[in-house]
Amino acid sequence: MLDKSAQAYWAANVRLLSMCLVIWFIVSFGFGILLVEPLNAIHLGGYKLGFWFAQQGSIYVFIGLIFFYAWRMGQIDRQFDVHE
Amino acid sequence: MSELQVWTYIVVGLSFALYFGIAFWARAGSTSEFYVAGGGIGPIQNGMATAADWMSAASFISMAGLLAFGGYDNSAYLMGWTGGYVLMAMLLAPYLRKFGKFTVPEFIGDRYYSQTARIVGVICLIIISVTYVIGQMRGVGVTFSRFLEVSVDTGLYVGMGIVFVYAVLGGMKGITYTQIAQYVVLILAYTVPAVFISFNLTGNPIPQLGLGAQMADGVYLLDKLDQVVTDLGFKAYTVQQGSTINLFMLTMTLMIGTAGLPHVIIRFFTVPKVSDARLSAGWALIFIAGLYTTAPAVGAMARLNLMNTVQTGAVGSPDGNLAFDQRPEWMKTWEKTKLLEMADKNGDGKIQYYNDGGLSDATAALAKAQKDGGDVAAAQKKLDEVKAKHDEKWGKFGWNGNEVTKVDRDIMVLANPEIAKLPNWVIALVAAGAIAAALSTAAGLLLAISSAISHDLIKSVINPNISEKSELLASRIAMAFAIVIAGWMGLNPPGFAAEVVALAFGLAAASIFPVLMMGIFSKRMNTQGAVAGMLAGILVTVVYIFWFKGWFFVKGTEMAASKPENWLFGISPEAFGTIGALVNFAVAFIVSRITPPPPEHIQHLVEDVRIPRGAGAATGH
Questions:
Q1: Chain A / chain B CB contacts < 8 angstroms
Q2: Is the sign of the CA dihedral B219, B224, B230, B232 positive or negative?
Q3: Which residue of A has its CA nearest to B219?
Q4: Which residues of chain B does A20 touch, with a Cβ-Cβ cutoff of 8 Å?
């Protein structure tokens, strides 16, 4: 495999995971901790929104993120022909 | 024997028959099967086993209790212990699977081309795993003692025997299939009572929705809970009271600690392909989320039921409180364990449970000063001040201090079905689940310890020519030793279980996680940087914790009281692992830049682990 293509593959991976980790940070540390007070003014049924993110929402987003990453990496693996 | 005890013996006995049947059926044959089940485990099965491995007594017994009394402030445990899987799936698992070795120190030793790095890695791993397993052994002991109605020590011996039999005889393959069974038992035990309670309170059987739903009178459950607790002087459940920086740091520490825990990482060596390692982390988190999204409902509903059990009517009305002699059976049972204590301070024959603003503490401090010959005048003055404030608010009701003097947080999940008056078979199921949670994690940790000693120390450092048979024997002996040491320390734990578990996470965050991540993401990182980073990270964290908790947890050797005003930047010892990790990264970066870069073949190795193609089964050298 060409060195250049390996570099491009790795760059694509790092781009994708950086994007995922930004979302990871926003939903937990952002919505669940730093912005919890303003978000608590909004209600989701009986949940205050900031409280919901801290105790429910962030966990659902984490699951979505991992499966999205796994699916997208599968595509990138095939695109660069490094899949198993 | 009571009906509940009969049910407990039946349910716990059946679950054990299941685990042992599986362990026997899947006995390990070769060394590679003992460690990683021959690489033949798919992502869904592996995810389920990882979930059982991961969810320990801390998740099952402790977490909902922490939420019940801390409310929003303890959200760090929920986000921290799940968010770590995102880091694991993206930063570590796929590359370590591609690397294709058995253990974490093996990766460290090969990537940093150094036996020294490997040995430092082994030492960090053993410190982390042993501290963690001590807490688990204690959890096993407490659960057995409560439900078999024996002493904590006897409960611990029973637990040690059981862990020994299936961890030592089964190895990883036995553990993997056993852990799938344990996950099923554990999740049923956690969710069945939650479904009953959620339905009883809100009419919605799904706890995650019930927590955000209205109760029969049309008031939202969380609003009601905030109301009930603030009426009695406690802080509102859904509102933050602790500091933001500490919440932030604790969440971060638990997240990177999760990703750096060796017994969890080792799980991802067992899947057939690199792409399966990514998926496996996702499946693990789905199975974990089953418990973690239910826990907030369990905590909030247990708190509400507890408050309503004691405060039966309007606050301050003469008939508003539960009479002592009419208290339910579960209170009497737990009082025997001394984890729940009550005292009729104002002699009205009723129980008042409220926040007395430190009156009980001040009274106890005065009594202690009188007994030990301390500063009685100062203690008396403090008491008078607190008492005046207290009486202004509560004196008109004739209240004289909180009468539920102790509610151990760890009893909430076990007592929850009893508080909600659920049938005996549900209570027995919770016992089986708690035992499954504690045992499965203890077994996984013991496997990580034994493979570190037999594989990373004996085979690669002390005697490279050891036969496969002798290596297997050595790993079993190491495991038996680890059980005895952990059990012995579990008899005399170095502090509360939660402190011990937090230490394990902080240490994993400060030592293992940075060195693994840099090994994959930085081609320039070399031996010198990695070793210096690991040592600096773990030392800083250990010293900070011992500074506030006592050297080696010996009481009285603390350098300062563990209070927010003494903490560095207001960060508690439990939350300090993030700082340890930053120190690790910084030291490793600086040292690696002033020492020679790693040899060419190591740079090729790093390029190779970044690419999925060509991942064979794990190999042993």
A1: 135
A2: positive
A3: A46
A4: 86, 90
> Tens digit of pLDDT for each residue in A17-37?
999 999 999 999 999 999 999
* B276 inside domain: yes
Angstroms from B145 CA to nearest CA on chain A: 32
Residues on chain A touching B285 (C-beta within 8 angstroms):
59, 62-63, 66
The CA distances from residue B559 to B543, B546, B548, B550, B579, in Å, are 10, 8, 6, 7, 19
Per the model's pLDDT, the better-predicted residue between B364 and B251 turns out to be B251
Pairing of strands A43-44, A47-48: antiparallel
| Residues on chain B touching A13 (C-beta within 8 angstroms) | 610
B379 and B423, same domain (yes or no): no
- Chain B partners of A9 at a C-beta cutoff of 8 Å? 610-611
pLDDT of residue B236: 93
Q: For residue B402, is it within any domain? A: yes
B289 and B168, same structural domain? yes
ipTM for the whole complex: 0.96
CB of A64 within 8 Å of a chain B CB? The answer is: no
Which residues fall within 8 angstroms of residue B543, CB to CB, at 6 or more apart?
Answer: none
On chain A, the residues whose CB falls within 8 A of the CB of B82 are 58-59, 62
**Is B621 a member of any domain?**
no
Domain match, B292 and B378 both? no
- The closest CB to that of A70, out of B213, B214, B279, belongs to B279
In a domain, B277, yes or no: yes
Token pair of B68 as six digits: 């019940």
- Chain A closest-CA separation from residue B289 CA (Å): 7
Which pLDDT score is estimated for B38? 46
B contact test, residue of A5, A33, A35 with most B CBs within 10 A: A33
Three-state SS for B445? Answer: helix
**Statement to judge: residues B161 and B243 lie in one domain:** yes
Least confident stretch, A9-23, B128-142, B398-412, B565-579: B128-142
**Number of neighbours of residue B358 by Cβ within 10 angstroms:** 18
Same domain, B384 and B504: no
Structural domain of residue B348, as residue ranges?
A: 316-407
In three-state secondary structure terms, B562 is coil
Q: Looking at the structure, do residues B123 and B208 belong to the same domain, yes or no?
A: yes
CB B282 within 8 A of CB B48: no
Q: What is the pLDDT of residue B161?
A: 85
Give pTM, 2 decimals. Answer: 0.90
Cα–Cα distance between B340 and B346 in angstroms, integer?
19
Domain boundary among B407, B433, B461: B407
CATH of the domain at B488: 1.20.1730.10
Contact A59 B78 (CB under 8 A): yes
B407, B431, B464 - which closes a domain: B407
Q: Is B178 left (phi over 0), alpha (psi -120 to 50) or beta?
A: alpha
Residues B69-88 have pLDDT tens digits of 999 999 999 999 999 999 99
**A-chain residues near B72 (CB < 8 A):** 36, 51, 54-55
pLDDT (tens digit, 9 = 90+) per residue, B140-192?
777 777 777 777 778 788 888 877 876 766 554 556 777 788 899 999 999 99
Asked if B225 and B133 sit in the same domain, the reply is yes
Interface membership of A79 toward B (CB under 8 Å): no
Cβ atoms B124, B512 nearer than 8 A? yes
Residue B37 has pLDDT above 70, yes or no: no
Contact of A2 with chain B, judged by CB distance below 8 Å, is answered with no
Output the pLDDT for position B255: 95
Residue B329 shares a structural domain with residue B293: no
Number of domains in chain B: 2
Chain B residue closest in CA terms to A84:
B613
**CB of B448 within 8 A of CB of B266?**
yes
Contact A63 B285 (CB under 8 A): yes
